[in-house]
UniProtKB/TrEMBL annotation:
GO MF entry, a single one: RNA-DNA hybrid ribonuclease activity
Residue ranges constituting the RNase H type-1 domain according to the UniProt record: 85-206
SUPFAM superfamilies: Ribonuclease H-like (SSF53098)
Pfam families assigned: RVT_3
Name this polypeptide is given: RNase H type-1 domain-containing protein
CDD domains: RNase_H_like (cd06222)
Domain of life: Eukaryota
Amino acid sequence: MEILSKLQGNDAEVPTAELAVVATWYIWWQRRQIVKGVKVQTPEKTALAIKVLATNYLRSTIPKGPIRKNDHMWRKPGYGIAKINVDASFQYETLSGACGAVARDYRGDFIAAASWFVPNISGVDSAELTAIRNGIYLATHIGCNNIEIESDCSFAVNSLNQVDDYLGPEVAIITEYKQLMMDFASISFRHCYREANQVADELAKNTFTTRSSSSWDDEIPDFISHLLVNDMSII
């Protein structure tokens, strides 16, 4: 432990020394759980949990550090519910866009993520609604039956929560939602602040840059891991 505590460098915002010490303790604790016959997390989720613990510890030691507003923080869904955060990127010059979606369970654990490049789309409202539709597709893919869709676009969320009254230009997409919603035991649409939707935002931005659609089941892509850590950190 003395040697580990002298390691140099950083992993994102966490010093390597603190990360190594927390990892050593966490792996020891998991070994105790295995001895007791308790199932432990996958290596990928274990690594994420270690980074969350180290981040919380580090932030707690910083005097007068930035205070995160409660309503700007990502929140876990209720028991048995999968929360799917979605977001979209849109470019007026090319009328093209991209969508990102990430699914997490009631413990906050990563389930899956996906992103889609959309070469032709009429506007930003259509892009945001398409992101929610694709989030529903992700839920179907991973077999979730009780879901909560969260978006930072108030127009899209309000349109879906008032689905019977909507008569705007996106009515065809809204009608499609009505059919998709029938396949779930429960489904809700919630608005969140952009600060609580950074993972989905990064997924959309990344696929807009690469111009290619991607999906991840269980395996967490490196470019969003630090954002997942931030969402799970309580400080």
